[in-house]
Fold this sequence. Notes:
Layout: E1 3-4, H1 6-18, E2 27-34, E3 40-47, E4 55-59, E5 62-66, H2 68-74, E6 78-84, E7 87-93, E8 99-100, E9 106-108
Parallel strand pairs: 1-6, 2-5
Antiparallel strand pairs: 2-3, 3-9, 4-5, 6-7, 8-9
Amino acid sequence: xxKVSESAKKKVIELMNDDGFNATTDFIRVGVKxxxxxxxxxxxxxxxDQQEDDKxxxxxxxxxxxxxxxxLYLIGTTLEYSGGLNGAGFVFNNPNANRTCGCGExxxx
Length: 109
C-alpha cells in the first residue's frame, strides 16, 4: 500500500484541479523507472484510466494506481509534499530504498 500525507493530499487535489482532473474519480499514477543518479527514479503523473495489471489504492481521499512491476519497489511508501526553502515538490518516503540521491528523486535497493 502507498500512503498519502495530508500536505501531499492538498497539493495533489490542487494540481489535479488545475490540470482538468477530478480528484474524486481520477488517479495519481506512481511508478518506478530506470534512471537517476541512484539507479531508479520515481514517476508521478495524473491518469484517468486504470490498466488491467494496475494495483489500486486509496489513502487520505487520494486514488493511486501503480503498475505491477513498480509496486514491488513501492510497498510501504508514503507520498509527502514539501514546500520548504530548498524547493517545493513531492517526496517519496520509501522504506525499501537503501540509498537515495540528494534531491530525493532517485533511489537504489
